[in-house]
Amino acid sequence: xxxxxxxxxxxxxxxxxxxxxxxxxxxxxxxxxxxxxxxxxxxxxxxxxxxxxxxxxxxxxxxxxxxxxxxxxxxxxxxxxxxxxxxxxxxxxxxxxxxxxxxxxxxxxxxxxxxxxxxxxxxxxxxxxxxxxxxxxxxxxxxxxxxxxxxxxxxxxxxxxxxxxxxxxxxxxxxxxxxxxxxxxxxxxxxxxxxxxxxxxxxxxxxxxxxxxxxxxxxxxxxxxxxxxxxxxxxxxxx
Length: 239
Description:
- The chain is mainly α.
- It has ten helices and three strands; from the N terminus they run ααααααβααββαα.
- Strands 1-3-2 form a three-stranded antiparallel beta sheet.
- β2 and β3 (163-167) form a beta hairpin.
């Protein structure tokens, strides 16, 4: 949450970004944080060569002189679902790992947290109020994250009486794959326009044509695979 304390998930994402050689500005963009926050976090916890997420979290806790909450949840930390037969702490730990993975894949921190909630909810749907309560964030943060996820084709919304529910349904991954294939098709078309301008027999033209062929092939392969595998999203795994 911009302006709030960094979470363990965010610190792990910072550590991953630093290890991968990403600029502080890029790490901050992925987290939805100011660049100064990431820069200050790294420099006060060992610098780029020695920054470790776990050590930074411990050091921050020691500096704040604050006790950890005695119940699951807390500011900036998802509340572990209370579902019979599930260990709330195991669920919470899994959600943190999944969120870190989604952040590392390119999602914003809040977008990843919202998506993780929808992934791990049995109904696959939550209202804005439920997300606010579960994530301990403001309604504005949830709204911004949902808008971002919608733009990526990862969630959709529907009316439930007076309320809106945000859903992750079985076809979201299928639609996301199609969007990726379409983006590749646009890229292939654009690079081929460059071939006509620069000349098909020039080194630049040959380079662009090869890129266009490669991108088009990958996009077509994704689309075919998505069509062939779509039924998997609507079947129960074998016992």
